[in-house]
Amino acid sequence: MNREKLVERILLICALSAIFVIFLIIMFLFKEGLPILKKEGLSFIFGRFWEPSKNIFGALPFIIGSLSVTFLALLIAVPLGLFCAIFLSEIAPGWAESLLRPVIELLAGIPSIVYGMFGLIIIVRAIKVSIGLPTGESVLAGGIVLALMILPIIISISEDSINAVPRAYKEGSLALGATHWQTIRNVIIPSASSGILASVILSMGRAIGETMAVVLVLGNVEMIPRSIFNPAEALTSVILLEMGETPVGGTHYQALFAIGILLFVIVMLLNTASILIRRRMR
């Protein structure tokens, strides 16, 4: 066997090992969580109350908490990220680009616990003082922290998509008399829309799966938030906070794994949608 064939075999084994490990994780997750889903059915997903001491398990407050903080983060981060990507790709001079790019890469490398501590000390306190709430831990604080965390994803992928637009499109638009901004708005952004949408979907999956930062600033109250100023609890938060005190194999234990199944399905659907969109873009 020559060296090239040996390297191919080793790479194949590594790829199959990764697939096998993922398969084992999925099997373990569904083995532990499916019994309560079969027992409770849709009442587990749409139940409004979570009382483990009474064997009442309704995940709706956590689902709404996760979705509300995620969509608020997208509402903040998508416009900022898109405008920053347009600036870096089409407007920024060389010195500004060389200054901003390392900052964006630094944002992507900061651990989530650091974002959570920053949110707890600065953002939560600012919300409490400026709005006059009893506590600043709220959906608003979680949305702001998550927006900071997903900004690098949106900026990087959107910028790559804008740079991938053929130069002939831009030159043709300018030759027809359009201004630079009209070309960006009417030609470049529509041409890069698939990649921009893929960045939004990927960042949404990142936001839904975030744990440490969210658990510090969201308040972790088992209730359906009425507004962005109310505290809430995310799907990831309830697993983190309750798994350590739960007897292995019990109903409460199975309920937490069922929440993990819900998270897995949501993130899998988002990643699949992102892959399909990026294939269309290419």
In short:
By secondary structure, the protein is an all-alpha fold. 78% of the residues lie in helices and 1% in strands. The radius of gyration is 22 Å and the shape is globular.
Please, could you describe this protein's structure?
It is a single chain. This protein has 282 residues and is mainly alpha-helical. The protein has a domain at 61-234: MetI-like (MetI-like fold). Helices cover 78% and strands 1% of the residues. The chain contains 12 helices and 2 strands. It has helices at 3-40, 42-46, 60-91, 94-109, 112-131, 139-163, 167-175, 180-191, 193-209, 212-217, 235-242, 251-281, and strands spanning 50-51, 56-57. Strands 1-2 form a two-stranded antiparallel sheet. Strand 1 and strand 2 form a beta hairpin. Helix 7 packs antiparallel against helix 8 and helix 9 runs antiparallel to helix 12. The chain is globular and about 70 Å long. The model has no long low-confidence stretch (mean pLDDT 84).
